[in-house]
Specification:
17 strands; mainly beta; binds zinc ion; binds D-sorbitol-6-phosphate; 6% helix; six-stranded antiparallel β-sheet
Length: 210
């Protein structure tokens, strides 16, 4: 019989034979702490993306090169309770995008299609002000406003990227299928067909000529 690994948010860990859980009341191994919007638990994956990791993403590469290479642009926390590529499983994550700009382009994530490209995803706004930039396979690009409580269904075959348009950290929750994967190459090669730029103090989607 399979043995599962059980870790609770206080780093408590033990192995429980599933049959032994009968009638037990236990803590989930992971907590989304509402005090600071941190994912807490033993199995959380933490990713950090700095200026130095984002060459080729922003329009103004020259300005990017002059910025502090170590400056954090965004972080991702994820709970991946099953192996990647497991069909039918789910992942939960949060993305935190710092306030800032590269010239007049808001700090944003790399953006991606899913590797299994028909896989969908939910996003929801937790804190701050942002835009969810979306692009279909015909390269039509549009954006949805992100704010605490906003809810976003990202269908399959839709590339997605988050930008922070406010002055505090933008925090966004996400839930996606464990077998979705990431296809960064297409965005790295062709980009989105529009960029979110600050024009006269407001965010505007501007056709990407590159
Ligand atoms: C995963 C989901 C998010 C992003 C995160 C960072 O499918 O969409 O967790 O991974 O927002 O963006 P990116 O484009 O660097 O993966
Ligand atoms: Zn995704």
């Amino acid at each position: 019989m399979a043995v599962i690994h059980f870790n609770n948010p206080d780093n408590y860990s033990e192995e429980i034979n599933p049959a032994m859980k009968h009638l037990k009341v236990i803590k989930s191994p992971v907590e989304f702490r509402l005090a600071d919007y941190n994912l807490k638990g033993n199995s959380i994956i933490n990713q950090v993306r700095r200026i130095k990791d984002l060459s080729g993403i922003f329009l103004d590469e020259e300005t990017l090169k002059k910025m502090n290479a170590e400056l954090i642009v965004y972080t991702v926390q994820a709970w991946m309770p099953v192996d990647e590529s497991t069909p039918g499983g789910l992942y939960f994550g949060t993305s935190t995008i710092m306030p800032g700009k590269v010239d007049n382009e808001y700090f944003m994530t790399k953006g991606h299609f899913h590797a299994k490209s028909d896989r969908a995803e939910f996003y929801w706004g937790v804190q701050g002000k942002g835009m969810l930039i979306l692009m279909d396979r015909e390269r039509n690009t549009w954006a949805e406003e992100v704010y605490p409580g906003s809810l976003h269904y990202i269908g399959g075959e839709i590339a997605h990227r988050l930008a922070n348009i406010g002055s505090e950290n933008l925090i966004v929750g996400a839930c996606w299928p464990s077998d979705a994967g990431h296809n960064y190459d297409e965005i790295a090669t062709n980009g989105f067909s529009a960029r979110l730029l600050e024009v006269d103090n407001i965010p505007v989607l501007v056709e990407n000529k590159n």
